[in-house]
Amino acid sequence: MIQPEISSAGRTTFEEYAGTAWPALYRSAYLLTGNHADAEDVAQQTLEKAYRSWSHVVAASVPEAYLRCMLTNTFLSGRRSKRHRLELLTDSWSGTEQPHPRPGPEDQLMLWPRLKSLPPRQRAVIVLRYFEDLSEEQIAEALGCSRGTVKSTAHRAIKALRAALISDGPSRRREN
Fold this sequence. Notes:
Blueprint: H1 14-33, H2 36-52, H3 54-59, H4 63-77, H5 111-116, H6 120-131, H7 136-143, H8 147-168
């Protein structure tokens, strides 16, 4: 996350911090939730919690890590079963996909639907590790678990992603 500038009084106000931290907070929330509406909700809930405990956030040795932990916990604790949701928002169209004639940058997007289908904790570990580039220790701290749990969760997530890509078979693979 981006460091906010310190005010002339030597302290960062919540408003300054929230304005500076919002883009990175929203990006992480989007990677966790998989859609824009839920990402905005999770990011806003995180900022609301940060506002209520602002003295703890600014007193933390690394406020970005504290906020990241709040974001991840908000995402994980806020996952409700689909029957409790009023509507399920998606970013994808349900029509048939047209295959691309040659491999290109868009082929990297093949992984996105599979990432969205992972359980929330596995998705959180993958996002924190590979998109936020955190160490196992930092992820363990953010999730409130051991490094071993992070490793095993990442292993299960990667195994599930590989299996999903293999099950797509040659029909999804591009030819050179």
